[in-house]
Design goal:
32% helix, alpha/beta, 25% strand, 471 residues, single chain, binds nicotinamide-adenine-dinucleotide, 13 helices
Length: 471
């Protein structure tokens, strides 16, 4: 068969690209081993983890509600049912993407692709047999896999990566989470809410190394209450499976004064992901891979091989689904002859912990590192009527502004629902809004969105709910 476009990899990058290409009238094939489009994000990443986090938040909220005079008692957890709920969420979404592919006449081929040359590939099909496909263009969107350093590689089902942890094999009495990043904190929160005593070890001096510290501090205050231990500047030096659990030797701040040897029922290793760029047959093309394993592309998502484009986790960080989708759509528009490029001013990042943490555009840390002069304008959620009604004053909204133009360069948020609120920041940054634009946009009362408006008012020293003596 011959197609104008073949997309290899059916995650949010690949399927967004395939769907848009079909909408633009191209003949399209999408190759992926899973039963339907969805990729890691939908099958074993963003989506199942968010279903579990929703439940975890409910458990936490129900516990907290005794402070408001409502006591639900201890939760009774039916793990099979919970797993079923999570699996149903995945099934519903992936059935949907499968239907959408059919409606658009995207040929979905279940299998693994091997490039034969710059215009053809072979698919080893899941249900047997091979199919050779000719293409005018291909988009590589094969994503990423958990990076497990050799020292943390233990062949024992009690040592889990994120995929295994999402299967909820049981609720271990004790869980060690190696890595205080996105996955460690999100999945660690799920297990903690379900009743595990969770210890997080992070080798750097702080959780979520890429995020601004004032935001992380708010999250850390809450995390240290829900987790048994959060140990910074601590690393695992040895890990061995034994009959009574996983014996772990730790080194660093966390175990100072204590025993460096600890035993855990289970371990979750979440120390980052690596690009899945070892695509068979890639060497038969001019596609270049850099020293970190990322496929080299330009701002139009072109590789060094004119017929082949690449998008998503395989082309670089941040490894986020929404970045991949956007890049996929750019690649398709370029293939369709449009003069476009990936030039997002803001790629939002959200950590779905409780409270959530989100940021977009320039961070304060990046500004500092680059020596860029900025003004940071903060609104604490203790002054937000809506946050008080929710009993969720554990939040902060901040704007990072250019002192000359008053342009909004970055937005940082921590608090309940921060992941939803950040979208307004993205729009503001993309549209080149300044503090006055945000200040003059009437925000609904009482909502958490007002914290965005009021942080712009803080910039002018005129926030209704923050008193600053006149200078
Ligand atoms: P991460 O990069 O977010 O965090 C890994 C953490 O592990 C870092 O803090 C790092 O310092 C630490 N670390 C590394 N080696 C260590 C060691 N030996 N001992 C202790 N700590 C160690 O990686 P992740 O949590 O595995 O997630 C991978 C990627 O997946 C993320 O970077 C993100 O791009 C994506 N992701 C996004 C979301 C989301 O958008 N909400 C959720 C999950 C994953």
């Amino acid at each position: 068969m011959s197609y104008q476009l073949v997309v290899v990899g059916g995650g949010p990058g690949g399927y967004a690209a395939a769907f848009l290409a079909a909408d633009l009238g191209l003949s399209v094939a999408l190759v992926d081993p899973e039963p339907n489009p969805g990729g890691v994000c939908v099958y074993r990443g963003c989506i199942p983890s968010k279903a579990l986090l929703h439940v975890a938040n409910l458990v936490t909220e129900a516990k907290h509600s005794s402070a408001w005079g409502i006591d639900f008692g201890a939760p009774k957890i039916d793990l099979d049912k919970l797993r079923g709920f999570k699996n149903d969420v995945v099934k519903r979404l992936t059935n949907g993407t499968g239907q959408l592919a059919k409606f658009r006449k995207v040929q979905y081929i279940r299998g693994m692709a091997e490039l034969l040359d710059p215009h053809s590939l072979k698919v080893r099909k899941i249900d047997g047999g091979d199919e050779t496909i000719q293409f005018d263009h291909a988009i590589l969107a094969t994503g990423s896999v958990p990076a497990i350093p050799p020292m943390l590689k233990v062949e024992d089902p009690r040592v889990m990566d994120s995929t295994a942890a999402l299967e909820l094999p049981d609720i271990p009495k004790s869980l060690l989470v190696v890595g205080g990043g996105y996955i460690g904190l999100e999945l660690g929160s799920v297990y903690a809410a379900l009743g595990s005593a969770v210890t997080v070890v992070e080798m750097t001096p702080g959780l979520l190394p890429g995020a601004d510290r004032d935001l992380v501090d708010v999250l850390a205050r809450s995390i240290t209450k829900t987790m048994k231990n959060v140990w910074l500047n601590t690393r695992v030096v040895q890990m061995k499976a034994g009959p009574s659990g996983i014996r772990v030797t730790l080194e660093g701040e966390g175990v100072k004064g204590g025993s460096p040897e600890q035993v855990f029922d289970r371990v979750l290793v979440a120390v980052g992901r690596r690009p899945n760029s070892k695509i068979p047959g890639l060497e038969r093309t001019r596609v270049a891979v850099n020293e970190r394993g990322f496929i080299v592309v330009d701002e139009q998502m072109r590789t060094d091989e004119p017929s082949i484009f690449a998008i998503g986790d395989i082309v670089g960080e941040p490894m986020l689904a929404h970045k991949a989708s956007h890049e996929g759509r750019v690649a398709v528009e370029v293939i369709a002859g449009e003069n476009v490029a990936f030039e997002a001013r803001a790629i939002p990042a959200v950590v779905f912990t409780d409270p959530e943490l989100a940021w977009a555009g320039l961070t304060e840390a990046q500004a500092e590192k680059n020596g860029r002069k900025v003004v940071v304008s903060k609104f604490p959620w203790g002054a937000s009527g809506r946050a008080i009604t929710l009993d969720r004053v554990d939040g902060l909204t901040k704007l990072i502004l250019d002192p000359e133009t008053e342009r909004i360069l970055g937005v940082g948020l921590v608090g309940a629902g921060a992941g939803e609120l950040i979208a307004e920041g993205v729009l503001a940054i993309e549209m080149g809004a300044n503090a006055t634009d945000l200040k003059l946009s009437i925000h609904p009362h009482p909502t958490l969105t007002e914290t965005m408006m009021e942080s712009a008012e803080v910039f002018f020293g005129q926030a209704t709910h923050v008193y600053r003596p006149r200078r």
